[in-house]
Each structure stands twice: as structure tokens, then as C-alpha cells.
């Protein structure tokens, strides 16, 4: 009986009683509770942001490792040239 107005006087007259009026129990339709962290709602956006952040951090770590390796290679080459120069 949601959304409809019912005249209680007519219900009482139709049932023949005043205080013994029983309302029929209608099942109420309800939505599932909102959960902002459910997989179907917003996690996909957050998950994508985390994946992008992780990829960026991995790339930065790889770049730092390559830079350190290049610096070590350069120092090793300089040291080798210094040793060869001292021999002569």
C-alpha cells in the first residue's frame, strides 16, 4: 500500500469492524545496502590508480638502478685508465 492514500473509514466499513482492521502485509522492495568499497562500485577506479602508481614506482626504481650501474661502470673505466696511466 505504499504510495497510495487509503481512507481508513472505508476500510473499517468494508471489514465490518473498527479496531480489528488488519492490514495485509505487503513485501517491501528494498535496495541492497550501499557499500562504497564493494567490487562493483568504485574499487575498479582505485585499483587502476594503484596499478598505475605501482608501475610508476617500478619504472623509477629501474631508472635509478640503471643510473647507478652506469655511474659504477664509468668509475670502473676511469679507475682502469688511471691504473694503465700509472704503469707507463
Average pLDDT over all residues: 77
Low-pLDDT stretches are none
How many extended strands? 0
What coarse outline follows from CA principal-axis ratios? Answer: rod-shaped
In terms of DSSP E residues, the strand content is: under 5%
Order of helices and strands: HH
Structural category: mainly alpha
User: Main β-sheet: number of strands, strand sense, barrel status?
Assistant: none
Helix segment count?
Answer: 2
Report helical residue fraction: 55-70%
* Rg, alpha carbons: 39 Å
Query: CA-to-CA gap between the ends?
Result: 105 Å
Protein architecture, described:
The protein is 60% helix and 0% strand. The longest helix is centred in the last third of the chain and has 45 residues, at 43-87. The chain has a domain at 63-88. It has two helices and no strands.
Give short descriptive properties of this protein.
2 helices; 88 residues; mainly alpha
Produce a short descriptive summary:
Residues 1-47 are annotated as: Disordered. This protein has 88 residues and is mainly alpha-helical.
Topology readout:
Layout: H1 8-15, H2 43-87
